[in-house]
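Duplicate of earlier report; NADP-dependent oxidoreductase domain-containing protein input re-posted below.
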Amino acid sequence: MDTFKEVSGAYQGVSDLLSKHKVLSSKYCLNSGTSMPILGFGTYQIRSHQIYETLDTALGCGYTNIDTAAVYYNEEAIGQALKDLLPKYGLQREDIFITTKLSPRDVGKSRVNDAVKRALQNLNTDYIDLFLIHWPGAQGIGTTDSQNPRLRMETWLELIDLHNKGNGVLRAIGVSNFMTHHLEQIITLTGVPPAVNQIEFHPYYLHPKELYEVCAKHNILLQAYSSLGGTGNPTLIQNATIEECAKKHCVSPAQVLLRWALQAGYAIIPKSITPDKIRMNAKLDFELTNEEMNLIFTLNKKFNEKFAWDPVNVM
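Output:
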């Protein structure tokens, strides 16, 4: 049976940092030259009225990487909360790493610039640290529609211009939910690889060897979402193997899953609105053995479950 290392091959991601630095203070140098904290704070499904209190807790715990998206509809609340909260913690804008994502309705040459301007205004900032294409397809057309590759390429070219080799309003650009064929298309036609591919990853949903190969070749960092399973779906976090491993290390099952993703080389963006869970999710300075890593890796053989959108069939 393959081990994770046999599948991931030359891909290292953030794993090399773990023996040198505390997780909360570790930063990965993206292929654009921008340094990104490997532990981020996710805000998916956190409503605007919950943002201030939640970010107050997160900043107090030491999180400095905030992940959002246009389709989360909380960018404006995040921008206002950061404006109010950064002075409380002695932080400046440059101490915070902000990621947001382009809505699938805004792909294509004619819409990207306005979408970026809205994001800048909503987030109350002059620049965005990492801007991602949220989905490889366009809203309103079928997954097999031939417009998808064209719109994806137009969008990537516009983001390259806005990035301007790190001198533009987008300090780094990347993608989300891109499979191998999506990555190869934009890299082959532009010569510019994404800095990050944010994608679903957990023991129940793994990636093919080809994805790791293209990411290793172009130094694309994989960033995991849904590390703890699906919203309202506890099957992963209640898995007996995960619970047993958590007891051994005197940590929570969530901490085991997050540490597993880090040791697999993925940056992570756990989300919670519960203060105790936000704090615990930042305490990841323990180490899983190779045996534990591979045991968790093999859970996919029995429990094959995807919790979020599936981009595989997007042309």
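The chain has one domain: 4-302.

Merging into the original ticket.
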